Amino acid sequence: MSDFTSNFWSLYVAGITIVGIVACGLLLWLTSRKKVESTADNTTGHVWDVDLTEMNNPMPRWWMWLFVITLIFGAGYLIAYPGLGTYAGKLGWTQLGEYQAEVSRAQEAEAPVYARFASMKTEELAGDPAAMAIGDRLFMNNCAQCHGSDARGSKGFPNLTDGDWLHGGTAENIHTTIQDGRVGIMPPMGAAVGSSEDVRNVAHYVLSLAGSPHDSLKASLGKSKFTACAACHGMDGKGNTALGAPNLTDDIWLHGWGEAAIVNIINNGKTNEMPAQKDKLTDAQINVLTAYVWGLSNKAGAAR
């Protein structure tokens, strides 16, 4: 793939573009000079289907000038705008610049709408119908792709309505998550736990912590091996929001439950990423979105 980022391809595309314009101009010039010998009745002598005779009428001048204008416009466009490889164009126009200008105009237009929310606390915003209507749109446009339109998530994507938070469910924690994103890493722990049998025993111990169906004998054998996991999840298995380590006692399984699913995660680890939104959303939008997400699992607090 490195070949496609070299200067050769920029020069290659620019060369083809220039040659194409010059060739079209040359072809137009040559055809305008070519004279077809005709008979006395102004025909080319070609006849089809018995009586369809080709006349030798010249191409209308206005038609030819349309081609000329097209060539001139194409050359002028390539001088003014980027189109010849890495050449930036005289006007300095870029797609990124155009996008940023449109975003700036949209933010300026929206500023009065968000001004009313600037002094409101998260709890107040969560109870404001206008703010929540905006928050719902922000969520649908930026979050629903992963967490679902109902915010209940799916396998690998957290449910935002149940009060179970990997990094804490306070307004401040949610704001930080939306703004800066999160990266959750569960390293492969199979070697640290022990043999494959030890891994299965730990899986049953983890199931026992959550009150899920398990083999009690294997769970008792796996308890001592769980110390390899306690550095993140704690000896009691209640997790650590500072590390994003899940609570293993609440019977909420982000990546599936059961012996096979847990054994797979212990052996292979898992990496999840919540992308940062600070480059897509303004501070005011993040504040409103924070209140919306906070309100999903704090409906009583929002109502108050």
Summarize the structure.
The chain has 304 residues and is mostly helical. Helices cover 53% and strands 7% of the residues. The protein folds into three domains: 79 residues; 91 residues, Orthogonal Bundle (Cytochrome Bc1 Complex, Chain D, domain 2), CATH 1.10.760.10; 90 residues, Cytochrome c-like domain (Cytochrome Bc1 Complex, Chain D, domain 2, Orthogonal Bundle).
Any overview of this molecule?
The chain is mainly alpha-helical. The chain folds into three domains: 2-80; 120-181 and 275-303, Cytochrome c-like domain (Cytochrome Bc1 Complex, Chain D, domain 2, Orthogonal Bundle), CATH 1.10.760.10; 185-274, Cytochrome Bc1 Complex, Chain D, domain 2 (Orthogonal Bundle). 53% of the residues lie in helices and 7% in strands. The protein has 14 helices and four strands. The chain has helices at 7-33, 61-80, 95-115, 122-126, 129-142, 144-147, 171-180, 190-193, 196-209, 216-222, 227-233, 259-268, 283-296, 299-303, and strands spanning 43-48, 52-55, 182-186, 270-274. The strands form two sheets. Strands 1-2 form a two-stranded antiparallel sheet. A two-stranded antiparallel sheet has the order 3-4. Helix 7 crosses helix 13 (283-296), helix 9 (196-209) packs across helix 10 (216-222) and helix 9 (196-209) packs across helix 12. The chain is elongated and about 110 Å long. It starts with 6 loop residues before the first helix and ends with a helix. The model has no long low-confidence stretch (mean pLDDT 89). Heme c 2 binds at residues 186, 229, 232-233. This is Cbb3-type cytochrome c oxidase subunit. One of its GO terms (molecular function) is iron ion binding. InterPro entries: CcoP_N, CcoP_N_sf, Cyt_c-like_dom, Cyt_c-like_dom_sf, Cyt_C_IC, Cyt_c_oxidase_cbb3_su3, Cytochrome_c_Oxidase_Subunit. Its cofactor is heme c.
